[in-house]
Write a structure and sequence with these properties.
The complex is a heterodimer. Chain A is an alpha/beta fold. Helix content of chain A is 37%, strand content 16%. Chain B is built from 12 helices and no strands. The chains are: A alpha/beta, B mainly alpha. At the A-B interface, loops of A face α3 and α4 of B.
Chain lengths: 217, 314
C-alpha cells in the first residue's frame, strides 16, 4: 500500500466517516470489549447498507485501520473505474468473484493470504444487502473460511439502523441512531457446514434479541 | 471574569455555581465511598460523571458567545429529535419526510437567532403542521398516514418547538433582565428544572411509597413529587433575586409551578416510553439513559417559564 493512499485513507476516516457516524448518525455499541484486539480475526455481520462496512471499520482505533480488510463482490465494486480505485485503495477491499468459478481456483485465496498477514477480515455472510433491516439466509462461504482457519476467532456483529439511514438504492442519508451488538467469538462444529451456519444464525438472533427495534414497514 | 464572554457577571457566577455544586457532589460521593466501603456508589458516580460532561459541554458555548450557545441548543434539539425518530415506528415510504422534519431544527433556531418572535411561535405548530403532510401526499401512501403524521408532529412539538423556548430566553431584550440577561434566565430555568428532577428522584428513592401514576411510572411517588416542588420553590426564591426580574414571593410560585410542570414532562415521556415498550430512550448519557430521558421535564418547563417571563416581565 502506497504512503499517499494510506494518508488519504486515514484522512477519509478522520474527516468524513467518523464525523458522520458521530454527529449525523450516532452509534451505540454494546459489548465493545468483545471486538478482536489484534489480527488475524474475522468479523461477520448482517448486511443492510453500504455504510455497514464503514461503521464496522470505525469501531476500531485508527492505528488498526490498515489491518481491516472488507470482503466485497468484485463484479459490483470494480465495475466503475473510480469506484474500483476507491474500493481497492481507500477501503482496501478484498475483491471476491461471485459464482461461476472453476474448481481449480479458490475464490477465497486472497482472504487466506490476508489472514496469514494478520488482517481483520470483514465478512457479510448474507452475501448482499437485501431488503433493509431484514435478515436474509446466510450463505455457506463463511463455513469454508472457518474450516480453513480453525484458530482464527470469528466474531459476530449485529447492526440495526443503517438500513433505515441509507438502504439500498437510496442516495439521501437520513439521520438515525444506530445500534451495534458485538457477540462472543464463535466456537462451532467446524466439520459440519450446515451446523456452523445454523450456529452463526442463532448467534445473530441472540444478538438481535438484546435490542428492541421499532417497526419499519 | 477570565472569559471575554457576553455573559453578565451574575450569569457567570451561576455557571460557576453549577460546577461548585458538582464538585461538592463528587466530594460527598468520594467520602461516602471511603467511610462506608459496603455502600455501592457506582451508579451515583456514573450519573455524576455524566452531569460533569453535560455541564462542561453546555458551559463552553455559553462562555464563547450567544451564537455558539444557540448552535449548541439547536444541536441538542437535533439529537433529541433523532433519538425520538429512532424509537418510534416509522414507515419506509416516509424516509424523505423525516429528512424534511429534521430541517425544521435549523430553521426554528434561525428564527430564534434573528429574535423573530412571531415566526418562532408559529413555525412548527402552523407551518410545519401544514407542510409536513404534503411530501407524504406526493409519496401517496395512505396506509398508516394518520399515525405517521401524528407521531411526527408530536416529536417536532416536544423536541424542537417546546425545547426551543429555552433558547429564545437568550435573545430577549437586555431590558427584560438587566441583572443577568437572557443567559441568566436560561440558567435559572435549567438549574431549577434539573434540581427538581434530582430532588424528585432522590426523595422518591429515600422515602417514597404511594405512587402518583402507578400504571405509567412506578418510580413517581407523592413524596418525590412534593419534595421536588418544595425544593424547587425554595431554590427559585434563593436564585431569582440574582438571575431574574422576579421578586421573592412570586418566585416561590414560579418555582412550584416549574416543579409541577417538570413532573408532567417527566411522566409524559415515561408514558411514551411505556407505550413503545422501552425503559430508557437511549444510552448516550450513562446513568441517565438517552437525551429524551434528560430533556423530558424541560419540554414542559421551558415553554411555561418562557411565557411567564414574556407575559409578566416584558
Amino acid at each position: 500500500m502506497s504512503g499517499l493512499n494510506n494518508l488519504l485513507r486515514h484522512l477519509f476516516f478522520l474527516l468524513i466517516v467518523r464525523p458522520v457516524f458521530l454527529v449525523v448518525l450516532g452509534v451505540n455499541v454494546r459489548h465493545r470489549e468483545r471486538l478482536p484486539k489484534t489480527g488475524p480475526a474475522i468479523l461477520v455481520a448482517n448486511h443492510n447498507s453500504h455504510l455497514d462496512t464503514l461503521l464496522l471499520m470505525t469501531l476500531f482505533p485508527p492505528r488498526m485501520l490498515s489491518r481491516l480488510r472488507p470482503l466485497a463482490a468484485a463484479d459490483y465494486f470494480t465495475a466503475n473505474p473510480r469506484m474500483g480505485w476507491f474500493a481497492r485503495n481507500i477501503i482496501r477491499i478484498i475483491p471476491v468473484h461471485r459464482g461461476g468459478h472453476d474448481k481449480d481456483t479458490d475464490p477465497l485465496a486472497a482472504v487466506h493470504e490476508a489472514l496469514a498477514e494478520g488482517a481483520i477480515v470483514i465478512f457479510f455472510p448474507e452475501g448482499s444487502r437485501g431488503e433493509p433491516e431484514q435478515r436474509t439466509p446466510l450463505k455457506s462461504g463463511i463455513a469454508f473460511l472457518a474450516r480453513r482457519h480453525p484458530d482464527v476467532p470469528i466474531v459476530p456483529v449485529f447492526m440495526y439502523g443503517l438500513g433505515k439511514a441509507l438502504p439500498r438504492g437510496e442516495i439521501l442519508l437520513v439521520p438515525f441512531f444506530v445500534d451495534v451488538f458485538v457477540g462472543e467469538p464463535l466456537k462451532a462444529p467446524l466439520d459440519d457446514k450446515t451446523a456452523f451456519v445454523a450456529e452463526l444464525d442463532r448467534r445473530f438472533q441472540e444478538l438481535a434479541a438484546e435490542g428492541q427495534f421499532p417497526a419499519w414497514e | 471574569m477570565i472569559f471575554s464572554s457576553d455573559l453578565l457577571p451574575n450569569a457567570e457566577w451561576a455557571l460557576a455555581g453549577i460546577f461548585a455544586v458538582l464538585a461538592l457532589a463528587s466530594a460527598i460521593i468520594f467520602v461516602i465511598g471511603r467511610l462506608r466501603p459496603g455502600f455501592d456508589t457506582s451508579e451515583l458516580r456514573v450519573r455524576t460523571r455524566s452531569w460533569w460532561i453535560m455541564a462542561i459541554l453546555f458551559a463552553i458555548p455559553m462562555l464563547l458567545s450567544r451564537t455558539a450557545a444557540l448552535c449548541f441548543l439547536g444541536f441538542v434539539s437535533f439529537l433529541a429529535l433523532k433519538e425520538y425518530l429512532s424509537l418510534i415506528p416509522t414507515r419506509r415510504a416516509d424516509r424523505r419526510v423525516l429528512l424534511f422534519a429534521y430541517l425544521a431544527v435549523p430553521v426554528q433556531f434561525y428564527w430564534i437567532g434573528t429574535a423573530w418572535y412571531g415566526m418562532f411561535i408559529i413555525f412548527i405548530p402552523v407551518y410545519m403542521f401544514l407542510l409536513l403532510p404534503l411530501p407524504m401526499l406526493v409519496i401517496g401512501e395512505a396506509k398508516g398516514f394518520l399515525r405517521a403524521l401524528g407521531t411526527l408532529n408530536w416529536g417536532l412539538m416536544a423536541t424542537v418547538f417546546c425545547f426551543s423556548h429555552a433558547a429564545f430566553l437568550l435573545v430577549l431584550r437586555d431590558t427584560v433582565n438587566p441583572l443577568a440577561g437572557g443567559a441568566g434566565l436560561l440558567l435559572f430555568l435549567l438549574i431549577l428544572t434539573e434540581a427538581n428532577d434530582v430532588a424528585q428522584y432522590v426523595s422518591g428513592k429515600l422515602f417514597g411509597r404511594d405512587k402518583v401514576v402507578p400504571r405509567i411510572s412506578p418510580n413517581k411517588t407523592w413524596a418525590g413529587l412534593i419534595s421536588g416542588v418544595v425544593t424547587t420553590a425554595v431554590l427559585a426564591a434563593a436564585l431569582a433575586p440574582f438571575l431574574t426580574p422576579i421578586s421573592v414571593w412570586p418566585s416561590l410560585a414560579v418555582g412550584a409551578l416549574l416543579g409541577l410542570a417538570g413532573f408532567a414532562g417527566d411522566v409524559t415521556i415515561s408514558a411514551v416510553k411505556r407505550d413503545l415498550g422501552i425503559k430508557d430512550s437511549g444510552s448516550v448519557l450513562p446513568g441517565h439513559g438517552g437525551i429524551l430521558d434528560r430533556l423530558d421535564s424541560l419540554t414542559y418547563t421551558a415553554p411555561l417559564f418562557f411565557h411567564i417571563i414574556r407575559y409578566f416581565y416584558t
